[in-house]
From TrEMBL:
Organism lineage: Bacteria, Pseudomonadati, Bacteroidota, Flavobacteriia, Flavobacteriales
Location within or outside the cell: Cell membrane
Name under which the protein is recorded: Phosphatidate cytidylyltransferase
Cellular component terms per the entry's GO annotation: plasma membrane
Predominant subcellular localization, coarse grouping: membrane
Ranges annotated as spanning the membrane: 12-31, 43-61, 73-98, 104-120, 132-152, 158-178, 198-215, 227-245
GO BP terms: CDP-diacylglycerol biosynthetic process
Pathway noted in the entry: Lipid metabolism; Phospholipid metabolism; CDP-diacylglycerol biosynthesis; CDP-diacylglycerol from sn-glycerol 3-phosphate: step 3/3
Alphabetically ordered keywords of this record: Cell membrane, Lipid biosynthesis, Lipid metabolism, Membrane, Nucleotidyltransferase, Phospholipid biosynthesis, Phospholipid metabolism, Transferase, Transmembrane, Transmembrane helix
Membrane topology listed for this record: Multi-pass membrane protein
Organism listed in the record: Cloacibacterium normanense
Family statement drawn from the similarity comment of this UniProt entry: Belongs to the CDS family.
Catalytic activity: a 1,2-diacyl-sn-glycero-3-phosphate + CTP + H(+) = a CDP-1,2-diacyl-sn-glycerol + diphosphate
Any GO MF annotation of the entry: phosphatidate cytidylyltransferase activity
Length: 290
């Protein structure tokens, strides 16, 4: 077997296992068997998301190649400050966020950042634009991801919204790839991602909807309807991949990093999650209102 394939499969399995342990209660169960009451499920989850954020922000700085040191060194303090606002809500009020003006603004900023990247990339050639883009592109999606699962403090029950969101994203990516390989003829975005086809996109939507149906039947305690979540993921996960591809193309970078051997960096691995997570968060909030 090819050495690179072995490396890619091995690192992918480790990444998947780590994600599973930190986005479900099983990581805390495993650790607490060694040292009782050492951690709670939401602490591992918070640690994982924070790790993704810190590495992702670093990779963003690497990709965008700041011209001077001032704005480059401002990235981490600004990222920390904005993420702190999410952190206080996460630990202070649990996982049930409210839909208010600040959240509407924050969700809108993600859309504006994506539009700017595709339509007005010249705005990101200045260090000020790079700083703002990195904060929006990393902090806001990972911050909203903290609000996806339900956590019950009294019995440490931790629902699986985030892990199953990852499962749907992996499903969408995999089925889109295989369907595209077999039937793909019409390019979706040839200048940005030449291998993506509309046939592959359709295959990703179809099979992810089926998986969403089974999740809905198997996990009735999850927030929202997971057929709807499957549809949202199958639409917005490919868009997330295109956003990161456009970002790397704009600044002439092949991979965001090499922290995951054979897969690239955190932004390479989580590009779909970065766009899908805020969209699913918005759906959960609207579904709760209506």
């Amino acid at each position: 077997m090819d050495k690179n394939l072995i490396q890619r499969v091995g690192s992918g399995l480790i990444y998947g296992l780590l994600t599973f342990l930190c986005t479900t209660e099983y990581g805390a169960i495993l650790i607490n068997k060694i040292s009782p009451d050492l951690v709670k499920p939401h602490q591992l989850f918070y640690g994982l998301i924070t790790f993704f954020l810190v590495v992702g922000a670093y990779e963003g700085v690497r990709i965008m190649k700041f011209q001077g040191n001032l704005y480059q060194w401002l990235v981490l303090p600004l990222v920390a400050l904005v993420y702190y606002k999410f952190t206080t809500r996460f630990f202070g009020f649990g996982f049930y966020y409210t839909f208010d003006l600040s959240e509407i603004l924050a969700l809108s900023l993600i859309l504006i950042a994506a539009i700017t990247l595709f339509k007005f990339p010249q705005e990101l050639y200045q260090d000020e634009g790079k700083l703002i883009f990195i904060v929006i592109y990393t902090v806001l999606p990972f911050g909203f991801a903290l609000g996806l699962p339900k956590y019950f403090l009294n019995d440490n029950a931790f629902t699986w919204e985030v892990f199953l969101l990852f499962v749907l994203i992996w499903s969408s990516d995999s089925f889109a790839y295989f369907t595209g390989r077999m039937f793909g003829k019409h390019k979706m975005a040839p200048k940005i991602s030449p291998k993506k086809t509309w046939e592959g996109f359709a295959g990703g939507v179809f099979f992810t909807l089926i998986l969403g149906y089974f999740i809905e039947q198997k996990f009735p305690d999850l927030r929202g309807n997971w057929i709807v979540v499957g549809l949202l993921v199958s639409i917005f996960a490919p868009l997330g991949d295109l956003v990161e591809s456009q970002l790397k193309r704009t600044f002439g970078v092949k991979d965001s990093g090499n922290i995951i051997p054979g897969h690239g960096g955190v932004l390479d691995r989580l590009d779909s999650f970065i766009i899908a997570a805020p969209v699913v968060y918005l759906y959960f909030i609207l579904e709760n209102i209506f």
